[in-house]
Amino acid sequence: MAATTSALPDDLARKFVSACHILHYHRVLDAYGHLSVRHATQPDLFVMARQVAPALVAAPEDLVQYRVSDASPVDPLMTDGYVERYIHSEIFKKYPEVNAVIHSHAESVIPYGISGVPLQPCFHMAGFLGTSTPVYDISTLYGPEDTKDLLVRNTRLGAALAECFGNSSSKSRSAGHAVVMMRGHGMTVVAANIEECVLRSIYTQQNAAIQTTVLTTRAAYSSSKPLPDVRFLNDAEAADAAVMTHWSSSRPWKLWVKEVEEAGFYTNRILS
């Protein structure tokens, strides 16, 4: 590793490993998908796991530092990294307040990237979704030389995904959305810290499952009377509920850490 860089602080590194395990335990990640965190003291760097299933991340040697500027590894000999690290680098580059990113293939969210049905907040734990969730369609962005496997393989495709998180002001450097659906691929989630990013990922997955159940229930219901509209959270409810999950995110985090520590499957060799 270059002498001008420093290791991720142990408390943050341990939290990163725990988060990988939690995301697997809650089926947000399986053998695929990834988490990143901005370096605590060098914000022009970010950290991801090496190319290994998230449940198996365990030790400092599993963590890889990358440059935000171009997603290149700080260690030039590192070749065992995720090809989709450009998802993370371009989001960190565009939004200085974002310090954690999760990319997931959770099956419950896939319908909301391909069906034309928008994902909307169904319960108070998903107010951070707002009342609209953008969909990133990589098929509209391919160049003639791009591999068309839906993976975000370069900075150009990553920058287009990062744009989807923006708010109505094109000049703003604040993320207006916490979650973006990815057509035929999954979702990407952002937050100011690991704990809240994990919370948003878990409850986005749950919200998608709830919404699918709601829509299926309505379609199966037989009545001579028309049903009222589905009552998703409105703007004010979503905004206030997002504040609630922000200030309370440490409560589920402590539970989730305990779950993976007691599960008997996961190993975290980074001392707290």
Overall form: globular
What's the overall average pLDDT, rounded?
A: 94
Secondary-structure element string: HEEEHEHEHEEHHH
Helix content: 25-40%
Structural class: alpha+beta
Largest sheet composition: 7 strands, mixed
Distance between the termini: 23 Å
Q: Would you report the number of β strands? A: 7
CA gyration radius, whole angstroms? 19 Å
| Sheet with the most strands: spatial strand order | 3-2-1-4-7-6-5
The portion of residues forming beta strands comes to 5-15%
In the predicted model, the low-confidence regions spanning at least 5 consecutive residues are: none
SS field, number of helical segments: 7
Q: Specify the oligomeric state.
A: single chain
Structure description:
The protein has a seven-stranded mixed sheet, with helices on both faces. The chain has 272 residues and is α+β, with helices and mostly antiparallel strands. It has helices at residues 10-25, 85-94, 111-114, 155-164, 194-220, 235-247, 250-262; strands at residues 34-38, 45-49, 63-67, 100-104, 135-136, 179-182, 186-191. Helix 1 packs parallel to helix 5, helix 1 packs across helix 7 and helix 2 crosses helix 4.
